[in-house]
Specification:
alpha+beta; Ubiquitin-like (UB roll); Alpha-Beta Plaits; five-stranded mixed β-sheet; two-stranded antiparallel sheet; 24% helix
Length: 232
């Protein structure tokens, strides 16, 4: 068994367990876009970034691909992690603002602006459709093509695939295809219509800059059901 700490809690996991799996096992939510249980981890979207500390040095890693190691200290919602996720969500909004899943994540993390050149793409190159087609449907009908700015997903030479069964699995897992946000004003790519206005709380007893890492927040739920003054 591997022993490590996640948000100050000691946990033991089996060898080969990723930080994402270990964190979710403890109930710490970590957002993902390019990860689906049953498919190989890819680490493309980087929304699942967490902060780890080794030898008194900390760095950000993708939790879906980073394995749990002995003595590792992990923080899933530090101020550094939250800032990184917000930046990543801004970039994703610049690429694909009509993805409701991205819009919901941006709202949940309080992203109110997008500072990058606006584009209206239908793909964030998360690779979910490629892995679904290869690993679950055993077809390999689509794949990555090109590099850099010219990188895309499709069939070789844009020819109709002879092995595609039109199963729809690629669309089922695609974060850009699942639900489309109808908000499409070019001057303001952030919808905000479904935004979560619940303020994050701080775990000052453990970390000065630690954001709320529980979902739902147990402290908030307790306060919600506390009797008012004069009530029994």
């Amino acid at each position: 068994m591997i022993n490590l700490k996640i948000n100050g809690l000691n946990v033991s996991v089996e060898k080969g367990t990723t930080l994402l799996e270990a964190s979710r096992f403890l109930g710490f939510p970590i957002p993902t876009l390019c990860h689906v249980d049953g498919l190989s981890p890819y680490g493309a979207c980087r929304v699942c970034t967490v902060e780890i500390m080794e030898n008194s040095k900390s760095r950000l890693v993708t939790s879906c691909t980073y394995p749990a190691t002995e003595g590792l200290q992990v923080r899933t919602a530090s101020s550094r992690v939250i800032s990184a996720r917000k930046m990543i969500l801004e970039l994703l909004l610049a690429s694909c603002p009509q993805s409701k899943k991205i819009q919901d994540l941006a709202s949940a993390y309080g992203v109110r602006r997008q500072r990058f050149r606006q584009e209206y793409e239908d793909c964030i190159l998360c690779g979910l459709c490629v892995r679904m087609c290869e690993e679950q449907m055993m077809a390999k009908a689509i794949g990555f093509r090109g590099r850099g700015e010219g990188r895309s997903i499709g069939t070789p030479y844009d020819r109709k695939s002879e092995v595609c069964r039109t199963c729809g699995g690629c669309m089922y897992v695609c974060p850009a295809c699942q639900l489309r946000c109808t908000f499409n004003q070019a001057e303001n790519p952030i919808c905000g219509a479904c935004e979560n206005l619940s303020p994050p709380c701080l775990e000052k007893d453990n970390y000065d800059d630690m954001m709320c890492s529980m979902s739902p927040c147990l402290a908030c739920e307790i306060k919600q059901y506390e009797p008012l003054k004069g009530e029994k």
